[in-house]
Amino acid sequence: MYADSGRDNFFKVFERKMEEKRNRLKESGHELAVSWALCAVCLFGHLSHFFGAKASWIQTFHSTGFHLSLSLFTLLGPGRQLILEGVKSLFRGAPNMNTLVGLGALSSFTVSSLAAFMPTLGWKAFFEEPIMLIAFVLLGRNLEQRAKIKATSDMTGLLSFLPSKARLLVDGTKGMGSTVEVPCNSLSVGDQIIILPGDCVPADGIVRAGRSTIDESSLTGEPLPVTKLAGSQVAAGSINLNGTLTVEVRRPGGETAMGDIVRLVEEAQSREAPVQRLADKVSGHFTYGVMALSAATFMFWNLFGAHIVPAALKQGSLVSLALQLSCSVLVVACPCALGLATPTAVLVGTSLGATRGMLWRGGDILERFSMVNTVVFDKTGTLTIGRPVVTKVVIPGCAESTDTKGNSRYTWSEVEILQLAAGVESNTVHPVGKAIVEAARAVKCHNAEVVDGTFLEEPGSGTVAIVGNKKVSVGTLEWIQRHGVNESTFQEVEELKNQSVVFVGVDNTLAGLIYFEDQIREDARYVVESLAQQGINMYMLSGDKRSTAEYVASAVGIPKEKVISGVKPDEKKKFISKLQKDQNIVAMVGDGINDTAALASSDIGIAMGGGVGAASEVSSIVLMGNRLSQLLDALELSKLTMKTVKQNLWWAFAYNIVGIPIAAGMLLPVTGTILTPSIAGALMGLSSIGVMANSLLLRLKFSSKQKQIHGSHASTKTHLDSDLLMDQKEKLDNRYSDAR
């Protein structure tokens, strides 16, 4: 499928598949519009008769012949495909809901046609039954199809990360020579390309010249850039921040790491989900049972009817009575309630989720999520906020400096260190620099102006500039020493588990150390503890180093033995597959492109709303509010929805258990009662109303449950949140307040 002859072949095939899916959805929309137009005309005819309209043209809308034409057009038009699929399933020996719908529509039409063409039978025609049945079923199918298409591998957001053109190096080597812009698809292995600051890397390759920092967060999910030197590997889709690189192409076009992720996602989505489809499984046996009961009813009354109720024969022939009762069995068993049991509850459940900031990609997701027993968390951007935050500023004991005259000594304050560092870092795009600038703004530091022409940045090392009359360097220890800081002033750096550090040098003095970390989400521990109370196993995956990953896991309550660190995107997918092989139903929670393969391969993929589009596109659930606590709301909603579905199914089957024997003539020998097809249709309508009413009650049930849950956990959540805030934010604020 992915031939070497065309490097962009994969993406062309991918786009063609998506176009085919969109065309099928468009056709489904046309069928739905026609069926509901026919349904509206049918209802108009009944309403005009109800209000006693006398005009002849209005009376036409209520005539039996007109409704017969509408019903026939419905069966041959929008309902044709549905009925054919049901019949084919029946012939294959695997009847499903389509079989039941087709059987119900055809039996209703047959009975009504007999009533219209044979008035002596005394039956009432109800041609509106197949029209309304097809319209409602097509509506449910269209909504389901639309949700599934959104959940398929529509990776437009992911593919947009790849640039369309690249700067090809010609007439030179190692960055010396001219460049020409060429389409990325025309690149070949061995080509050398120039990547300027701010460029998106167009192909996987190896750095041959230059030095820069690369933002690989779109691929790895980790917030800090990575320094790239000669010999380092770079991946398509990553962003070059602040240096010029000469890269030798190793994997161009659809063969890139980005292409690998797309293929992994499509592969995961193409496999059949291990989800229970209760209605379809039962309906297969139910269809055979209804057909057998209908045939048995006809045979019984045709053979023994005269001996049991001879008086009934006065109303018509024995064959007519047997046919009427057998058709009543088919009509009363028409699966309106059974067909509506799942979609109505799912419709209410998904709309409830939308109002609470939870996007569900399909009705089957509600069922699968309610059965989840294992949750796998990504670290960065999921359990943490996904960007560095300054936690504290430390002044070394030797951080004393002389004034301009050299005869007085001065110790820098934490606020001053932050102010000077922010002045320098305001000229960089590095995430750590941005974190320092934001921290300075938070404590309302005055802007420190950098002398024009003095700013210098070395990717992977640090920055330096003249601020006022001081030379300020910010970066690694080796960097500030290169810019005049005496080695004798260095003191041992405090080891903090989840924190990194940058050094700040002022002239020849180590003036301060700025610690920063990727801050843990305020509700992370609350969510982990709540899931643990429900008996759900939890794991954490991270591309970060083990010490950092274990620190975050311990802070939120995940055991260290369930932490897997240093994993790549394909390794995350393999870990999910391993859990599934051990009979676990796995939910994966992530936010980045590096999580897309794992999200797609898991039974339930859950994307944080703050993640990139690709993660959202492949996920079963998107938490639009970007709050991890929404995971608990989604789990509760899925369980309540499935409970409602089961209640609806029990009601539908109870109705059939009672209705079918009566339709078969059980009461005829005792009371002389015959359940005509029209009455059977009315009872079928009442059963559908009962199912829909129970589904609508889901709204009240969920609201009540949420109040109960949030009420019982409010104090615990507040306590946990305040602890986290005090550890990661308030301590820094207190230091700044004391300094001021």
List keywords for this structure.
single chain, 740 residues, alpha+beta, Calcium-transporting ATPase, cytoplasmic transduction domain A, Calcium-transporting ATPase, cytoplasmic domain N, six-stranded antiparallel beta sheet, 26 helices, 53% helix, disordered N terminus
Q: Mean of the pLDDT scores? A: 75
Shape: elongated
Radius of gyration: 35 Å
Q: Largest sheet at a glance?
A: 7 strands, mixed
* Estimated share of beta-strand residues: 15-25%
Number of DSSP E strands: 24
- Supply the number of helical segments: 26
Percent of residues in helices comes to 40-55%
Q: Going across the biggest sheet, name each strand in turn.
A: 10-24-23-22-11-20-21
- The end-to-end span amounts to 66 Å
Low-pLDDT sequence parts: 1-8, 268-276, 715-740
Broad structural category = alpha+beta
List the SSEs and their pairings.
Layout: H1 9-50, H2 56-60, H3 64-76, H4 80-91, H5 97-117, H6 128-151, H7 156-159, E1 165-173, E2 176-183, E3 192-195, E4 204-210, E5 212-215, H8 217-220, E6 226-228, E7 233-234, E8 239-240, E9 245-251, H9 257-270, H10 278-308, H11 318-332, H12 336-355, E10 358-360, H13 363-370, E11 374-378, H14 379-383, E12 384-394, E13 400-402, E14 409-411, H15 414-425, H16 431-442, E15 456-458, E16 462-467, E17 470-475, H17 477-482, E18 500-506, E19 509-520, H18 524-533, E20 537-541, H19 546-556, E21 563-564, H20 569-581, E22 586-590, H21 596-601, E23 604-608, H22 613-618, E24 621-623, H23 630-663, H24 668-671, H25 677-696, H26 698-739
Helix pairs in contact: 1-3, 1-6, 3-5, 3-6, 4-5, 5-6, 5-11, 10-11, 11-23, 11-25, 12-23, 12-25, 13-23, 15-16, 23-25, 23-26
InterPro entries: ATPase_P-typ_cyto_dom_N, ATPase_P-typ_P_site, ATPase_P-typ_TM_dom_sf, ATPase_P-typ_transduc_dom_A_sf, ATPase_P-type_domA, HAD-like_sf, HAD_sf, P-typ_ATPase_IB
Keywords: ATP-binding, Membrane, Metal-binding, Nucleotide-binding, Translocase, Transmembrane, Transmembrane helix
Main location: membrane
